[in-house]
Amino acid sequence: MNRTFPSYLPEPHPVAFTLLGIDIMWYGILIAAGIVLAAILIYIRAESHGIKPDRTLDMLLICLPLGIIGARAYYVFFEWDYYAGDLMKIINLREGGLAIHGGLLFGLTGAAILCHRWSIRPLSLLDLAAPSIALAQSVGRWGNYFNSEAHGGPTDLPWGIPINGEMVHPTFLYESVWCFLLFVFLILLARRRSFEGQIFLLYGILYSIERFLVEGLRTDSLMLGPFRQAQLLSLTIILIFTAAYFILKRRHPKNKTRSARQSRK
């Protein structure tokens, strides 16, 4: 495809700088930046959800490694033909290859176990974490840009970016912008949430809608047979979380009272 439009972003280079002969990758810097911002935000907002701030740090020290392991294991599982028999490839995170769904699965499972152990209401913790997760994703997606991954196919649209001399859909950017707007929406809504679990469920629904749509543009999707696994999982999450949203909303005391008043009229 001919390069019809000038790009607003330069051709990416994965190396930020070299320190003592070791290349420091933009991918790692941006993933770490997203995690740090998320951790700070969770710590600051913890008391508003009835959780001791120091407990969030304890949980982060356990759940963060679990999330990274899960994100890598999930990606490697679906790309096993590439990684089979090469341990160094499997553990080399510098070139990318982390799947958010795997990270959430492992990280949230660890958090659920810790909630039970430390007597923390799990839905309150999930509501606390959801906006921060969206913010971390918004920042971390820029690591995909510098690694020239998670982009779409060729496009003539004016916001296309150059990858290997070809203008393509910046799907990493679509998701980054969506996740930032999702972060803002969830933070504002959290001030007047109606029931425990509302913020987390809305995060799951709204992120999955975006992921389902944008995944169709990507050229590096993980596949499950003929299907894009992220689309299948996103659709499943949308259905389950939407059902859970209305069930929890109906069970909330305020909604029960409202329904009772309406039935007496």
Number of helices: 10
How much of the sequence lies in strands comes to: 5-15%
* Termini separation: 66 Å
Main beta-sheet strand count, sense and barrel state:
2 strands, antiparallel
Q: Please count the beta strands (DSSP E, at least 2 residues each).
A: 6
The ordered H/E elements are EEHHHHHHEEHHEEHH
Integer average pLDDT: 91
Low-confidence stretches: 256-265
User: What is the alpha-carbon Rg in Å?
Assistant: 20 Å
Identify the overall geometry. Answer: globular
Structurally, the number of domains stands at 1
Please list the strands of the largest sheet in the order they lie side by side: 1-2
**Class inferred from helices and paired strands:** mainly alpha
* Percent of residues in helices: 55-70%
Describe the overall structure.
With 265 residues, the protein is mainly alpha-helical. The protein has one domain. Helices cover 65% and strands 7% of the residues. It has helices spanning 26-45, 53-78, 80-83, 87-91, 100-118, 122-146, 171-190, 198-215, 229-251, 253-264; strands spanning 15-19, 22-25, 161-163, 166-168, 223-224, 227-228. The N and C termini lie far apart (66 Å).
